Amino acid sequence: MTTSDTRTEKAAESPDTARPDAASRAGWFGRIPGFGDPSARFVHGWAIAQLVVNVGIVVTGGAVRLTGSGLGCPTWPQCTDGSFVPHQALGMHGAIEFGNRMLTWVLVVVAIGTWLAVFRHRDSTRGDRWLATLIALGIPFQAVIGGISVLTDLNPWVVSLHFVLSMALVSAATVLVFRTSTRVRQRATNTVAARLGNALSWLIYLFTWATIYIGTVVTGSGPHAGDADAPRNGLDPGAMTQLHADFVFVLVGLALAVAVTTRVLRMPQTRAAFTYVALLALQGIIGGIQYATNLPMALVIAHMLGSGLLMIGATWLVLWFGRDQRAPADVTSGTVTPGADAARTEPVR
User: Fold this and answer.
1) Within 13 Å of residue 233, how many CA atoms lie on the same side as its CB?
2) 5, 185 in Cβ contact below 8 A?
3) Which of 17, 179, 264, 304 could be stapled to 62 by a disulfide with Cβ–Cβ 3.0 to 4.6 Å?
4) Are 182 and 7 in contact (CB under 8 A)?
5) Are 107 and 170 in contact (CB under 8 A)?
6) pLDDT averaged over every residue in the chain
7) Which GO terms describe its molecular function (predicted)?
């Protein structure tokens, strides 16, 4: 038996009585479509956009490194001494690096839009507002770390930190997408299975982080430095690759365990678990081929995209299993026990 949960939906009202203060509340924002009195779907759309652009900047950042354009703009925040834009002498590398910097402003615009939508949505919680604020603040912090990486001539450890923060923003954006979704999500009523799934999902999340970070260490020891003169971390690429593979094997075992558990016990997280297994398998295939073919650019970029997708999948599993733990289902009565997100639940249908 399963139960369902969603954000509380208000009863339908007549046009004369629905939200009588909407016009006064909109104020100046009423001139901007959607922001006058944002709907749940409008907020969710902005949250999705924020997740997409945060994954996108990971891919474009990888393209900068793989084309050797990491120092295309040799200083920061200006591109060159005395100029914020590249000059002709910097060639293609300067254009690529400058273009990636300009994409940061796309993130800023989307982050501001998401922040406004969340804060103006009348059903947003304090947690939603804090999360939107932290993501927005993380973007300029990310730009600063990117600047430090340029000023340190692409020090591999700083570049690794740059990528790790990108993954943190992807994970946080995934949380906001999950929280703002109005989709009805079932809860597992088997408390033992829910606890097991929750424990496995956290292990998957932690090992996903560990695997991604070790992947950045592998990159720091390999050939794609971002510039011909950029330093390497001095570690043995073969040994680091083997360590990375060892963590992948552990992650595969955990992913299969949660997939089998959800399937056998017919838990509502089955599709999410199998989706993560599929993403992990695809990522492993890409990683194996790129290693065997001497790291071609297209496959490395695909591998970076896969890292972002895996982080989304791991975060999603933790959120869904965690919701079972925060508001466990009462198998006897078939209702949801009030918990941390009780304001967003509704009776069993």
Assistant:
1) 19
2) yes
3) 304
4) yes
5) no
6) 80
7) metal ion binding; oxidoreductase activity
> Cis before residue 296, ω within 30 degrees of 0?
no
Residue 16: both structure tokens together? 């004369």
Q: What is the pLDDT of residue 13?
A: 41
Which helix (H) or strand (E) segment holds residue 336: the answer is strand 335-336
249: confidence class by pLDDT, cuts 50, 70, 90: very high
Q: How far apart are the C-alpha atoms of 124 and 50, rounded to whole Å?
A: 17
Write out pLDDT tens, residues 162-183.
899 999 999 999 999 999 998 8
Among 50, 63, 73, residue whose Cα is nearest residue 177: 50
The 3-state DSSP class for residue 83 equals strand
DSSP labels, 163-221: HHHHHHHHHHHHHHHHHH----EEEE--HHHHHHHHHHHHHHHHHHHHHHHHHHHHHHH
Tokens of residue 2, six digits: 């399963």
> In angstroms, rounded to a whole number, what is the distance separating the alpha carbons of residues 330 and 114?
36
Amino acid at 117: A
Cβ-Cβ contacts under 8 Å for 142 (sequence gap 6 or more): 104, 162, 165, 166, 169
Q: Give residue 342's pLDDT.
A: 37
Cis omega before residue 77 (within 30°)? Answer: yes
